[in-house]
């Protein structure tokens, strides 16, 4: 079985799917984070109200930030697949580089460069761990021994 999933939807649909998935992940994770934070920072007796208010105010923002990152990453990944005509880990690492740089571009060239390098580094770590995990958890290759047949009598 290949490490890459070739049964995924075509690129325009993958971008929408990844953007929505990233939004959901950010909103749910942000909801949990801001619920705890809102409850902790609220006065006694109003902790539940404070937690719910914090979730309603901040969770969609974090979900939106995740969606922007996921959408840009997926867009760059699809563009690189189209340009290079390959699907390999270098596309993902380059997509992390481009996404990090693009999102930090407003901060200047220095901030964009640092963020781009950090994005590439994080994606390289993820790809390395994925590769190592798949290498160590996959079954060993099965050796195929050629079938030994007795010599057939010559019918001549």
TrEMBL record:
Protein name per its UniProtKB record: Mitochondrial import inner membrane translocase subunit
Organism: Rhizophagus clarus
Annotated TM spans: none
GO cellular component: TIM23 mitochondrial import inner membrane translocase complex
Membrane topology qualifier: Multi-pass membrane protein
Family, similarity comment: Belongs to the Tim17/Tim22/Tim23 family.
Gene Ontology terms describing biological process: protein import into mitochondrial matrix
Signal peptide per UniProt: none
Keywords linked to the UniProt accession: Membrane, Mitochondrion, Mitochondrion inner membrane, Protein transport, Translocation, Transmembrane, Transmembrane helix, Transport
Compartment(s): Mitochondrion inner membrane
A GO MF label: protein transmembrane transporter activity
Name of one Pfam family that matches: Tim17
Top-level taxonomic group: Eukaryota
């Amino acid at each position: 079985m290949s490490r890459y999933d070739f049964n995924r939807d075509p690129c325009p649909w993958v971008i929408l799917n990844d953007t929505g998935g990233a939004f959901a992940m950010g909103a749910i994770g942000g909801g949990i984070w801001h619920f705890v934070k809102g409850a902790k920072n609220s006065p006694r007796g109003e902790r539940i109200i404070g937690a719910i208010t914090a979730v309603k105010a901040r969770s969609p923002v974090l979900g939106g930030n995740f969606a922007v990152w996921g959408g840009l990453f997926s867009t760059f990944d699809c563009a690189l697949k189209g340009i290079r005509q390959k699907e390999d880990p270098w596309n993902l690492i380059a997509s992390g580089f481009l996404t990090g740089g693009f999102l930090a571009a407003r901060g200047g060239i220095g901030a964009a460069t640092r963020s781009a390098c950090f994005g590439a580094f994080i994606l390289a770590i993820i790809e390395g761990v994925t590769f190592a995990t798949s290498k160590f958890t996959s079954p060993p290759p099965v050796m195929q021994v050629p079938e030994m047949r007795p010599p057939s009598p010559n019918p001549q």
